[in-house]
Amino acid sequence: MSMSYIIKEIDLSESSCSGPIGELSGIVSELKSGEAIKVIISMEDTKRIIESWVKKKGLKLVTEVKDNSKYVLVISR
């Protein structure tokens, strides 16, 4: 199993619905194979939108953890 190296952490907990997708698009486009980003969000609807977007883009959702009222996602190329 290959490990992903987290190169950036982004807190999007103040963003709602599809707003985070625009912010993630630019960051994800810079990821190289084996690199990942850690994303913090607060809304379950936003989590579902990001999960769908990750699949559509052919990315990998490495981990998904609920930490109190926030979700922490690690997305890799």
UniProtKB/TrEMBL annotation:
Superkingdom in the source lineage: Archaea
Gene3D superfamilies: TusA-like domain (3.30.110.40)
SUPFAM superfamilies: SirA-like (SSF64307)
Ranges where the UPF0033 domain occurs: 8-76
InterPro entries membership: TusA-like, TusA-like_sf
Cross-referenced Pfam families: TusA (PF01206)
Protein name listed in UniProt: Response regulator SirA
Highest classification ranks of the organism: Archaea, Thermoproteota, Thermoprotei, Sulfolobales, Sulfolobaceae
